[in-house]
Structure prediction request, 345 residues.
Amino acid sequence: MTRHGAAGGGVLDWLLEESDAAARAATLIRLLGRPHDDPDVVAARAAALDQDPIRAILAAQEPDGHWGPPGPGYYPKYTGTVWQLMFLDQLGADPHDERVQRACDYVLAHNPTSNGGLGLRPAAGDGPPPPSMVIHCLNGNLLRALIGFGRYDDPRVKHAVSWAATRITGDGVDNWYRSGTSGPRFACAANDGNPCAWGAVKEMLALARIPARRRTRAVRDAIDVGVDFLLSCDPATAAYPTAERDSKPSGAWFQLGFPVAYVTDVLQVLEALVELGHARDPRLRGALEWVVSQRDDDARWRNRHAYRGKTTVDFERQGAPSKWVTLRACSVLKAAQAPREGSTQ
Prediction:
């Protein structure tokens, strides 16, 4: 592997093509270590606003900041408001763009529940979602996007962070719901009350975005619980608890893709653990080797879960070489091969 992870010169040149400005910006930041205010990053992010898929997503936005039917915006999948905010974040959309901030405002006006979590409504209607409809995957996905777009200091975001931390540890919580988060340690009704690894990954990715110096004791405790859970089995096997109707882990675990909605893949487990400082944990060896094994003959990764035909605009072709999956993989591999602090390598 090279110092850019698995991205050799030809792959790196491909990722940096100006014809895909969003991927170019993300590569400059994540593989080449450029700061967000680097002139090349700023220029690429500006260009990405005028290229699909970011251009198409923003073009479909209503003037008040939502997409599709008004309200909490979980439905329709995957063109409602919450999905567009998540996808804009995953694409590295410029947080200074007024349309991006308008989307943040809309979500913060419509998704918070009375207990602080960011929820969904199972049916159309006015008013906030009920607290019984907060689940870790959605709360984590929205938190990660909102924090990434500069909203961590908003009291509603901090309230949702507190919801996540206390529901993960269970400290001081006695209001669990059969229709949503049904217990501590990521228990979810959608997983027959078992801990849900998909939800765990999303919440860990959200909490990872909080600067370490600003993490409360509750957040640090929740991260400890989440890391322990994600390392409770070999991530390469994805042998986490499943619903009774499932005899084995979902196939989605082994279909690396982009964008990433509520499902999770093996690579995203690694992304969460890497962002939380566990890139060199020996328990990740099997998952890292599995990711490397998924490269094609051109040292690129293919998009096996592209959501083709389900999003506002297709991001990439199903089964084709993927800049975004390649970037995800190379970012993790780069972190895993980085010299340990204090090393003379």
